[in-house]
Amino acid sequence: MKTDEKADEKAAPLPDVIRDIERTPEDVVARAAAYPSSILADVAGRRGALHGRIQGLSPAMRFAGTAITVEVRPGDNLMIHAAMALARPGDVLVVDGKGDLSSALMGEIMSQQCVALGIAAVVIDGAVRDSEAIRALGFPMFAAGLNPNGPTKSISGRLNHPVSIGGVTVHPGDLIVGDADGVTVVERAKAASLLPLAEEKVAAETARIAGIRDRKALRPAWLDGALRAAGVIKDGETL
């Protein structure tokens, strides 16, 4: 084989559908499920939280799982069906629907199918429909909005490539957690290392709330220092 032919092989693009990915370990997902999305966003450097427009259809909906990333053309859900065919129990479908709300990408039938397949949740930067039925089903569906229009099923897209959703880049295999506050994504490689920090954060916040309730710590200990650093009060001054 010629040298330039070898170079062409190395430069060959990835297929549109990547079937095998490295997932966040199941034990890490199970431990992460104990923490709110806000705690995980905090310990991840106050990043990874999707735009607030993407919310659960019910505040009671919550989930933790591994991201299966889906890129679709606005209004077409062909690749979501393909993702469902490849997904494993515990996976979360993360759909870059381009923020389009002109037609729903999923509804009750596909949600029922997700439940039967063991899919943990769906997160869509786009619209869904049959919201009452999905709420009654209890399937965690997080979307940017609702629309009764149905989708087409005819345009190709990509599976398990990085996508941008709600202002955050999501890679296949990342940890993704959602609850009443919204959705937080944590890079797969960092997920396990952040869990001890999440435990510490919860303990610190629990102690802070206890101090407030018993009237022993009615303002944060860092407040005066932060005000001095911001030039609000002078050195030696206090509120």
Structure write-up:
The chain has 239 residues and is of the alpha/beta class. It has eight helices and ten strands. The strands form two sheets. Strands 1, 2, 3, 4, 5, 6, 9 and 10 form an eight-stranded mixed beta sheet that branches. The longest helix is centred in the last third of the chain and has 26 residues. The radius of gyration is 21 Å and the shape is elongated. The N and C termini lie far apart (76 Å). The mean pLDDT is 94.
Topology:
Blueprint: H1 3-10, H2 26-32, H3 37-43, E1 55-56, E2 63-71, H4 78-86, E3 91-104, H5 108-117, E4 121-128, H6 131-137, E5 141-146, E6 158-159, E7 163-165, E8 168-170, E9 175-179, E10 182-186, H7 188-213, H8 223-229
Brief synopsis:
With 239 residues, the chain is of the alpha/beta class.
- Provide the low-confidence segments as ranges: none
Question: In percent, how much strand structure appears in the residues?
Answer: 15-25%
Rg calculated over all Cα atoms? 21 Å
Order of helices and strands: HHHEEHEHEHEEEEEEHH
Average of per-residue pLDDT values: 94
Total beta strands? 10
Structural class: alpha/beta
Distance between the termini: 76 Å
Largest sheet: 8 strands, mixed
* Helix content class: 25-40%
